[in-house]
Design brief:
Blueprint: E1 4-11, E2 15-17, H1 30-40, E3 45-49, H2 50-57, H3 63-68, H4 70-78, E4 81-84, E5 96-99, H5 103-112, E6 118-121, H6 124-132, E7 138-144, E8 152-153, E9 165-171, E10 177-182
Parallel strand pairs: 1-6, 1-7, 3-4, 3-6, 4-5
Antiparallel strand pairs: 2-8, 7-10, 9-10
């Protein structure tokens, strides 16, 4: 059975996005980029909601991304990508497939099939839906040492308690801490 990992970064006060979706508070250093490069080498299928997909596809295929972070850019561009959206009409980023069906039912179906594991990047509203249905096998939460005071909180509005077990931590020199949990 395939596994689903969720990777998301948050502020110290629990926000994954500031007002109007702002993520300028999130800064990766050298160590965090090395972690991202290693993660890309796993070859997972990448999962996105529409907002995260739009943001990622506007950056990773660009010459700037390829110059600034060639390993991650290559991995992001070559990876198979599934985009869950009822409003998006088409995808333009290479290796992207639009999925308009119910995200929960589609992930239940995909998890039962043989193949690559899947990693949900960002996509807080999708993460919440999958978490509520027990479809996430590992949560990778990168906590930035910044407090922004307002925005959208991770797991905001979740209806069921999630009991998680901490399986690993990684502290980066920048002060960022990666927390990995499993249900």
């Amino acid at each position: 059975m395939r596994k689903v990992k969720a990777f998301i970064f948050i502020t110290l006060d629990g926000y994954y996005a500031g007002e109007e979706g702002d993520i300028s508070w999130h800064n990766h250093g050298h160590e965090e980029n090395e972690y991202a490069s290693r993660s890309m080498s796993a070859g997972d299928i990448l999962l996105f909601g529409r907002v995260t997909y739009d943001m990622m596809q506007s950056y990773w295929p660009t010459p700037m991304a390829k110059m600034n972070d060639p390993v991650v850019a290559e991995g992001m561009n070559k990876s198979e990508k599934l985009v869950f959206s009822r409003t998006l009409k088409k995808t333009s980023w290479e290796n992207s497939t639009l999925v308009k069906e119910d995200v929960v039912e589609e992930l239940k179906r995909l998890k039962l099939q043989p193949g690559k594991d899947m990693t949900l990047l960002g996509s807080g509203s999708i993460l919440k839906q999958l978490a509520e249905h027990g479809l996430i096998d590992e949560y990778q939460i990168m906590v930035d040492p910044v407090v922004i005071g307002s925005g959208v909180r991770l797991f905001e509005g979740i209806r069921e308690q999630l009991n998680l077990k901490l399986v690993s931590t990684t502290a980066f020199k920048s002060g960022v801490v990666l927390l990995c949990y499993q249900p």
